[in-house]
Design goal:
This protein has about 425 residues and is an all-alpha fold. Helix content is about 75%, strand content about 0%. Helix 16 crosses helix 19 (about 410-434).
Length: about 425
């Protein structure tokens, strides 16, 4: 057995101490505090040191990794007993990280494939998260709500896996705390989680995530971001919302792959053979995620959630409009800078072609039609408002590209701004029509 696997198993055993929280009550932090003190000051050599020591720990002669892990768990325990973080979520946050890391290390014993490693993290973390919440329910004599536990465990595992892809192993305390906070938010928003929602959400999003990675449309981090986003959209919004989301990712990914070799020769091809990373996914879908979260929150507040529905669709219309304009319009010659109409080389930020404008309008219209067909209460005028917001968002992207992209803002920030324009225009247009 490799030292890294033994170490992951040791961390998983320490994480399992969280399950005792219902019995310990306000002292739930104590076991982790004791582990942190022992790791920081007591264990400097011997078998336990060798079990838990990371390479940096050996150089410094102290178990800093275990100390940070235990302190983060102790902090979450205090939030659970003193501030109001639900005990099951505290347990889930600790276990999804500890057992997710163990699952990833188990896979690493036989293969270094990054996708399989992420799958190992996902399976180990999700199973442990469900089991931990069920154990807390049993010890507390409360109902075992399997659909809800499954949704929260999987969502927490995806959050932890995504952070682990972007951060280092030494950042596990930050991963744990972030996972706990986001689970708290998800739990508050998920007023009612049905079995069908969870089963459908998991089946569809995981299948599409696997397909996107296999086809080279997303990196591992991009796949995890997309699966998490899809799951939240299905559970908090519904199938119609997911259809709007997938209209962007599906059509957009196909357009990125279309005549990719020719785009490479022209210098306009996306990096990594068109595979979407986390930055690309969030740059195009962060506004949509905020909209679906606000929609879920509006069901418990005196706020009309319809506007968030239109804003969500408008942001996706802008994202698809911009993608088609760039990926298909970039194949045509003689682009002109949108601010001055002077001819510029292909691939110049802010350069547009009339063909790209047409493709962008088609992309915005596609999302508008999907919204009209599948989102509840969307009228023909509402669908037109979505298309308008998408088209104006695409052109806002071009204006920002010609003026501030590169020197001040990166591509992801410009994409975010464009989708925000699409969301605001669509919502305001519908508000004016209501």
């Amino acid at each position: 057995m490799q030292p890294t696997l033994r170490r992951a198993g040791g961390f998983a055993l320490v994480g399992t101490l969280a399950v005792a929280a219902p019995v310990l009550g306000r002292a739930a932090f104590a076991p982790f505090a004791a582990v942190a003190v022992a790791a920081a000051f007591g264990i400097t050599d011997g078998p336990l040191f060798e079990l838990f020591a990371r390479p940096a720990d050996r150089r410094e002669g102290r178990l800093n990794g275990l100390t940070g892990f235990a302190l983060a768990a102790a902090g979450l325990a205090i939030l659970a007993t003193e501030i109001g973080l639900p005990i099951p979520l505290f347990v889930a946050a600790v276990l999804v990280l500890a057992y997710g890391n163990l699952g990833k290390r188990l896979v690493a014993e036989t293969t270094d494939n990054p996708f399989l490693g992420a799958a190992g993290f996902g399976l180990g973390g999700s199973l442990a998260g469900v089991a931990g919440q069920a154990a807390v329910a049993s010890l507390s004599s409360t109902s075992i709500l399997l659909p809800r536990f499954t949704f929260l465990a999987v969502a927490g595992t995806l959050v932890a896996a995504l952070f682990r892809e972007m951060l280092f192993e030494r950042d596990d305390p930050l991963v744990m705390l972030s996972t706990g906070m986001l689970l708290w938010l998800f739990d508050a928003l998920a007023v009612a989680v049905g079995t069908l929602d969870v089963v459908a959400g998991l089946a569809v999003t995981v299948a599409l995530g696997i397909a996107s990675y296999a086809l080279g449309a997303a990196s591992v981090a991009g796949m995890l971001s997309g699966v998490l986003l899809g799951l939240l959209v299905i559970v908090f919004g519904g199938v119609g919302w997911f259809a709007v989301l997938i209209s962007f990712f599906g059509v957009g990914s196909l357009s990125t792959k279309y005549r990719y070799d020719e785009k490479t020769e022209r210098g306009i091809a996306e990096e990594n053979e068109g595979a979407r990373g986390t930055g690309n996914v969030l740059g195009n879908a962060a506004v949509a995620l905020v909209c679906v979260i606000c929609f879920a929150a509006s069901q418990s507040l005196p706020v009309d959630g319809t506007l968030f529905q239109y804003a969500f669709a408008g942001s996706m219309a802008a994202a698809l409009s911009d993608t088609l304009s760039s990926e298909l319009g970039g194949l045509y010659d003689n682009p002109r800078l949108i601010t001055s109409f002077e001819t510029v080389p292909p691939g110049t930020d802010g350069g547009v072609t009339w063909q790209g404008e047409v493709f962008g309008l088609i992309g915005a219209a596609v999302v508008g039609v999907v919204a009209l067909a599948l989102l509840p209460g969307v009228t023909p005028l509402g669908g037109a408002a979505v298309a308008l917001g998408g088209f104006l968002g695409m052109n806002a992207d071009s204006v920002l590209g010609a003026t501030v992209e590169g020197a001040t803002f990166g591509n992801e920030a410009v994409n975010f701004a464009a989708t925000l324009v699409g969301a605001v225009v669509s919502a305001l247009a519908v508000f004016a029509l209501l």
